[in-house]
Design a protein that fits this description.
MetI-like fold; 2 domains; two-stranded parallel sheet; two-stranded antiparallel ribbon; 25 helices; 72% helix
């Protein structure tokens, strides 16, 4: 008994607790989803749902559009993100530090704000559309493929940029110098030496972009127009089947997961075949570009970043613009929209803050324990914990929401229709980000520090609180801020799990945009952006944590 206690207490028990929690709130709902997809109306095993979808031309059309959109946006994100990362890593040019940081900041702009803002600029009654119409120039419709590919690329290229920039800064410049010394041309040297080492970073982040595009519900709904997409079709099936059979929504959700799973397998195969080990070395010194080249570099990347930031600028301008129903009176300023938000309908603001705070608290507490177990107490069980923790990252918000609603709609634990399912959905959905951030510091903490504490008679659990936890402070704060930022702006999952009276700001913005009330939507958007940015500023000023370091 004493041996068993020393072996399992406390870390073995905590690992088991974490696995049970994830099994109940992640694996079990996904199991229910898969089970519902292979059951007919009588409850018997059947593939009728898959057969029905394969015979449905509208579904096949939506599936094809989803794959085309995913590949197109991923390819364009690589086309923009890789050169931008290379310029920042290898060249010195005016305003480089600002250029290096700003693409990262665009991640905090909620997708509902992005879609709404581009409607304000290029929609049928958009600012630029009206201006060009005044000049006699008719712009093509922004709805459909143009708006989808354009806006999603500007949202997701940052993931490619960050991954490639990290790979380039870890590249040993001596390898490139060796290739040049053998008489190989600079272009061929980059292709043979640099490109293979960048491939894993590109492949990993391309998967993230592809999965986000496939699961995107917000921009797809706001800008998709008549472009039929799987994410929107899955949501429509959920609404149509509410209270009845869950066959089609479950089947579409399983197909969405299958698509990402296939791409994940292909990406893993490519990365493993092209995996290279890099020994420690110095990165090449950045080259200074002057005169015309510097202007071109700065202007090119500056234009991309300006366009990426345009939604943030537009939403604040529109929040203070006078409106008359769906008409925006550009140039006429008013506080009426903001006044209505704070005086007439402040509930979405309070709901967003409360739900995001509870989800962040639960997610960070779990992430602290899970990250420590995964990094410092490696066993077969902690490796399994690591795999399950990352699973929600590959599942879209809509699919995760559907799985939770189906699971906790009946039985001894009914959460559907309550605020608890919203907090649960947020915490589960964003848990991978919190765990990855919380674990970042643990790699640099020597085991000897904790062992020394234990050798002095301090218990393992108390050593964790007194030694490890204080050192993790920066990564814990980063994890909390990332959880907060991504949770309070969540819409794809919220639109499935929320019920009347529990509307959040993203839901309200979405409904206002759908109703053509862009002024009121912009006012909520301005509040949402402010609530997102506030903790980031506090972390930088108060805790001295630079979340968007360019170094």
């Amino acid at each position: 008994m004493i041996l068993l206690k020393s072996k399992w207490w406390p870390w073995g028990v905590l690992t088991l607790v974490c696995l049970v929690i994830l099994a109940f709130f992640v694996l079990y709902p996904l199991g229910v989803l898969f089970n519902n997809s292979v059951r007919d109306d009588t409850g018997a095993l059947s593939l009728a749902g898959f057969s029905q979808l394969l015979d449905d031309s509208q579904f096949l059309f939506a599936l094809r559009n989803t794959l085309v959109l995913g590949v197109s946006v991923t390819a364009l994100s690589i086309f923009i993100g890789v050169p931008l990362a290379y310029m920042v890593a290898r060249y010195e040019f005016p305003l480089k530090n600002l250029v290096a940081v700003l693409p990262v900041v665009t991640i905090v702009i909620p997708e509902v704000i992005v879609g709404q803002s581009w409607l304000l600029v290029l929609g049928n009654n958009g600012l630029l559309t009206n201006f060009m119409g005044y000049l006699g120039i008719e712009l093509p419709s922004f709805y459909g493929w143009t708006g989808l590919i354009f806006s999603m690329t500007l949202v997701y290229y940052t993931y490619i940029y960050l991954g490639v920039l990290a790979a380039l800064r870890g590249f040993d410049g001596q390898l490139e110098e060796a290739g040049l010394s053998l008489g190989t041309s600079p272009l061929m040297t980059k292709w043979r030496v640099l490109a293979p080492l960048m491939l894993p970073a590109v492949a990993v982040n391309a998967l993230i972009v592809f999965s986000l595009v496939v699961g995107n519900f917000v921009i797809a709904t706001l800008l998709g127009s008549r472009v039929s997409l799987l994410s929107v079709m899955t949501y429509n099936a959920f609404v149509n089947e509410m209270g009845g059979s869950a066959l089609l929504q479950s089947t579409m959700s399983v197909i969405s997961i299958f698509i990402v799973g296939v791409v994940l397998f292909m990406q893993k195969h490519v990365v493993e075949r092209k995996l290279y080990t890099m020994t420690a070395g110095r990165a090449p010194a950045a080259m200074r570009v002057r005169s015309g080249a510097a202007a071109i570099f700065t202007g090119g990347v500056g234009f991309i970043i300006f366009v990426s930031f345009l939604p943030l600028i537009i939403v604040f301008i529109a929040a203070f613009t006078e409106t008359s129903g769906p008409v925006m009176r550009w140039g006429s300023w008013s506080f009426s929209s903001l006044s209505r938000v704070f005086n007439s309908a402040p509930e979405p603001i309070f709901n967003s803050i409360i739900f995001a705070s509870l989800a962040t608290l639960a997610g960070v507490l779990f992430a602290i324990v899970a990250s420590y177990l995964i990094i410092k107490k490696r066993t077969v069980f902690t490796q399994l914990l690591d795999y399950i923790v990352i699973l929600p990252l590959t599942i879209s918000g809509t699919v995760m929401g559907i799985a939770l609603v189906q699971t906790f709609n009946t039985g001894w634990l009914v959460l559907t229709g309550t605020s608890a399912i919203m907090v649960l959905c947020y915490a589960v959905r964003r848990l991978p980000f919190a765990v990855r951030n919380a674990s970042s510091t643990l790699f640099n903490i020597p085991d000897s520090i904790e062992e020394a504490s234990i050798s002095l008679g301090v218990s393992p659990l108390m050593s964790f609180f007194r030694v490890i936890l204080p050192v993790m402070k920066a990564s814990i704060i980063s994890a909390a801020i990332l959880m907060w930022v991504t949770t309070i702006s969540e819409l794809a999952a919220t639109v499935v799990v929320y019920t009347g009276g529990l509307e959040t700001m993203p839901i309200t913005i979405f409904r206002q945009v759908d109703g053509g009330r862009l002024g009121l939507a912009s006012a909520y958007g301005a509040v949402l952006i402010t609530v997102i940015i506030a903790p980031i500023i506090i972390s930088i000023k108060l805790f001295r944590i630079n979340l968007f370091s360019a170094k």
